[in-house]
Design brief:
Helix content is 29%, strand content 25%. The chain has 143 residues and is α/β, with parallel strands linked by helices.
């Protein structure tokens, strides 16, 4: 199959894949047309939860937007679907809550390094966020 004949993965294709019975309890990102499973890990989840808590405490006082946790999905400007560990989006960029996937990149994406992550891959992911509409990325290294 030539590169020209490969059809890009659509949002409907993504929903079909993630809604398949064998994938129901798993999280997948869509990166360059390929499905990438996110692997759970307790320590990074705990750290992300703390960050989410502090952001929410700030937003209770200053209602600038919304935050999401580790299953909040965002469609980037290139069509990729990324799932940051924590994300913030201003009301301006996302005035209403999406039903499933935010069709706008987050203003802030937070990625907490998991044992299965490589530093190089995490930095590439941060660049992907920035190249496709995210304004700020925090990379958190638990060690």
């Amino acid at each position: 199959m030539t590169e020209a004949s490969v059809r890009p993965v659509t949002l409907a294709d993504y929903y079909r894949f993630v809604d398949a019975p064998e994938n129901k309890d798993r999280l997948f990102e869509l990166v360059d047309g390929e499905f990438v499973e996110k692997m759970p890990s307790y320590v990074p989840s705990h750290i992300a939860g703390l960050i989410l808590t502090y952001l929410n405490l700030h937003l209770f006082q200053h209602p600038l937007g919304r935050v999401s946790g580790a299953d909040g999905s965002f469609q980037m400007t290139n069509g990729d679907i990324l799932i940051p560990d924590v994300a913030f989006v201003t009301h301006e960029r996302m005035p209403t809550l999406p039903e499933r996937i935010a069709l706008t990149p987050p203003d802030l994406a937070v990625e907490v390094m998991s044992p299965s992550d490589k530093v190089k891959d995490l930095r590439l992911k941060a660049q992907r966020y920035l190249d496709h509409g995210t304004r700020l990325v925090w990379l958190v290294f638990p060690h």
